[in-house]
Amino acid sequence: MTPASTARTAVSTSLLEDFSLEMTGKDVSRLEEAGDAIPQGTRINVTFLGNEDLQMRLEAARAVKRLGFVPVPHISARRLGSRDDFERFLAALHADGTSDNVFVVGGDPAHPEGPYADSLSLIDTGLLQEYGVRHVSVSGYPEGHPEIDGTTLWSALCAKYAALGAQSLESGIITQFGFDVDPVLAWVEEVRNRGIGVPIRIGVPGPAGVRRLMGYAARFGVGTSASVVKKYGFSLTNLMGTAGPDRFLRDLAEAHDPGRHGELKIHFYTFGGLKATSDWAARFRKESLA
Ligand SMILES: NC(=O)C1=CN([C@@H]2O[C@H](COP(=O)(O)OP(=O)(O)OC[C@H]3O[C@@H](n4cnc5c(N)ncnc54)[C@H](O)[C@@H]3O)[C@@H](O)[C@H]2O)C=CC1
Ligand SMILES: Nc1nc(=O)c2c([nH]1)NC[C@@H]1CN(c3ccc(C(=O)N[C@@H](CCC(=O)O)C(=O)O)cc3)CN21
Fold it and tell me: Does the keyword Oxidoreductase feature in the UniProt annotation (predicted)?
């Protein structure tokens, strides 16, 4: 092995240490099926989608805990109808012992369904701490967001970071998924330049069909130019294939400079493929170690 490839292998292994996964409220049986392939203690995020209800979200977080993982329930500000809804969710999580870690996010509805227009307003209620939350993740957008301008995104990120620090809550950032490492690392540098040193989980899709990936990318405003997806490992002319983040992770590992970029970890958006992603991660890790 050459010195360069030794260095790359070492970094890519540490990048995959303590990766996190994401599931929806409907994925409980898939989680049971994938459980053995996932390292105990792995953080597993539970989405807060419009087509889930309170019971599904709570049940999913309970299942994550029961199977030996760390639940990270999402709370979407714009999808909460009232302060009561927010408190009811937090109280139930607390009672279940699944409220230690949460991810707060604005939410896709163009108009808030209740009193909270953004995730900062959830933090500012002070309710998180009251219900036992200790660690709060917020989102990051290396490629920007289709509905929110760049200046707003940066001021929101800095304000959330400051507000969490002021409440002595631990924090972290999870990025929107993407297919191109370059904007991710440029964005990470900007985060560090703004004085935010917390761990950043880089969002990547688990292995999935190309058609499915393209659909989600279009829905969430993630770039899929021909050159970017070619670099990632698929072609726009073959929608029947599948693609995993192999090259993305190798490129990320190669370019990751801990002195400049700080602590980075990986967050897998599984898009219905919890088992496929868990098996893939175990195999990729083993190959990196070999
Ligand atoms: N990264 C992810 O995994 C996920 C991202 N999202 C979406 O990302 C967007 C932003 O969420 P955060 O970064 O937490 O922002 P945020 O809650 O910190 O808000 C930042 C700024 O954007 C505005 N904003 C938030 N959501 C908006 C929307 N849907 N349309 C127009 N303006 C909006 C807020 O009023 C605020 O000024 C939301 O649309 C959210 O639904 C949703 C679920 C998961
Ligand atoms: N702006 C934005 N909004 C989001 O809601 C969002 C992002 N970004 N980034 C990625 C994450 C992950 N998201 C999702 C969304 C849907 C499923 C999902 O499995 N949905 C269907 C399955 C439909 C299908 O078969 O494709 C479901 O059953 O709910 C998973 C993750 C939502 N997320």
Answer: yes
